[in-house]
Amino acid sequence: MPLRRRFTPEARTDVHRCLVCEIREHSVCNGIDDTELAILAQASKRLTLPPGTAMIEEGTPALSFFNVTSGTVKLFKSLPDGRRQITGFADVGHFLGLTTAKTYSFGAETVDTVQVCRFLRPQLETLLTDYPQFERRLLDEVTDELAEAQEQMLLLGRKTARERVASFLLNRMIPPAPAGQGKTEGCLVSLPMTRVDIADYLGLTIETVSRTISALRREQTITGTDNHGIRVLSVTRLRDLASGQDSR
Amino acid sequence: MPLRRRFTPEARTDVHRCLVCEIREHSVCNGIDDTELAILAQASKRLTLPPGTAMIEEGTPALSFFNVTSGTVKLFKSLPDGRRQITGFADVGHFLGLTTAKTYSFGAETVDTVQVCRFLRPQLETLLTDYPQFERRLLDEVTDELAEAQEQMLLLGRKTARERVASFLLNRMIPPAPAGQGKTEGCLVSLPMTRVDIADYLGLTIETVSRTISALRREQTITGTDNHGIRVLSVTRLRDLASGQDSR
DNA sequence: AGCTGTCGTTGATTTATATCAACAATAACC
DNA sequence: GGTTATTGTTGATATAAATCAACGACAGCT
């Protein structure tokens, strides 16, 4: 059973911040040994950002690397005429801002109140060269991101609106408490973002997203009147929908 | 000026294979020092594969990692009913087969005759831990792949058929010889894949791809009757089309 | 509490692209 | 070298999702 650490919400740069960090084991920071955590704390700065904060502007010099410790950040790319594609949501434990280029090729904006640890580029570089385990962990993390990106390409290129929404709800489902129950019913879905964000993530319009969610509600696959908190009634059914096994 | 090395097409496992490899500097192998190349050659095996060879089967145990030294490989994901999304084409210098999971989440098939160097998982692991520069190079490579994947998500989620085809042709354009000429006219595009592959990469049907290419030909943006060799007449125009700046 | 703006839903209509269909061109093969 | 299969093109029609439009439900503010 993992040790439960107290999470300190205040922005602190002290040596103990990382030692005490609740989400460390779920992030790249886990690549650094417990005895070296002071160095990690010194290399980074904890920030608290209000909803709607532009963390990264497309085309801007790539100076920072962030690790999300709470909240959700949306990553996106835009076309000159304003069309936007959200390429992912970075939740707790996920990083953002990694690039080999001089400038960012994407934007990032907080969805809700977000806490991040910010690393400046040179400091990140130092960590990568000094701590092979940290670099390995980051490589694994990026490799997983790439696999997720490929899954999303399948969604955007080949799935119907119904399949897209079902896949999305499935991906954002809070893993049900492993209380040994065979059937996973009534799973919660975390939706801190707006319909516009969901549409821009799924390559649809807000109207189509809204209609599709309404349809799923109508046919009892999901429930919940609250827009940001949906409950899945049949995970099996949703899974079938997501992969194109539509029984209707 | 980079030293021009002789490329040996025969499948050899000898110590000098990597030393003599023409494309080394364009791949992850460049992360290994010249003096250590014998180890790299021993860790990998050179294979020549005919067109249409299934290199990776979705869901199969992830045992190998490949580095492409010639030809083009298509990477894809499929839905149960056969719908397919090609997530990328791995050309010379690109790797494939990287994953943190036990099994591959994607498939891979050769487009034309392909030469690869195959690394078995344990051997790759060893290289990664023993040669930090190799790992760094791979991290950079994966980071770039992720940026490309995000660009492709923008294409699949938000671009029109015209914009998708224009973007594709632009991406596959052979970089024009830097002969100092101001205007880059008549650039060649490398299209070893079929229309089906292009359609599955762009999230379109073969008919739409065909029609769009015909339209671009009709309006003098491109030429070439040969299906696998197109010539771009106006790179500027194509670039405008790709980003939605359609002047028509 | 009442106003104001944002966010979400639902309905009517349009449209870009898919689908269906036929044929042309190229490549593969005996 | 002519036949067959594969690959690509073009046209007609259907359709899923976009667009246009109106309204409902909140959340924030004074």
TrEMBL record, chains A, B:
Q: Which domain of life is it from?
A: Bacteria
Instruction: Return the PANTHER family for the record.
Output: CRP FAMILY TRANSCRIPTIONAL REGULATORY PROTEIN, FUMARATE AND NITRATE REDUCTION REGULATORY PROTEIN
Answer whether the UniProt record assigns the keyword DNA-binding to this protein: yes
Can you tell me where the transmembrane regions are? Answer: none
By its UniProt entry, which InterPro entries does this protein fall under? cNMP-bd_dom, cNMP-bd_dom_sf, Env_Response_Regulators, HTH_CRP, RmlC-like_jellyroll, Tscrpt_reg_HTH_Crp-type_CS, WH-like_DNA-bd_sf, WH_DNA-bd_sf
Q: Which GO molecular-function terms appear in the entry?
A: DNA binding; DNA-binding transcription factor activity
Concerning SUPFAM superfamilies, the annotation shows:
cAMP-binding domain-like, Winged helix' DNA-binding domain
Instruction: Indicate yes or no for the key word Transcription.
Output: yes
Q: Name one GO cellular component term.
A: cytosol
> What is the protein name stated in its UniProt record?
Transcriptional regulator
Which key words tag this protein in UniProt?
DNA-binding, Transcription, Transcription regulation
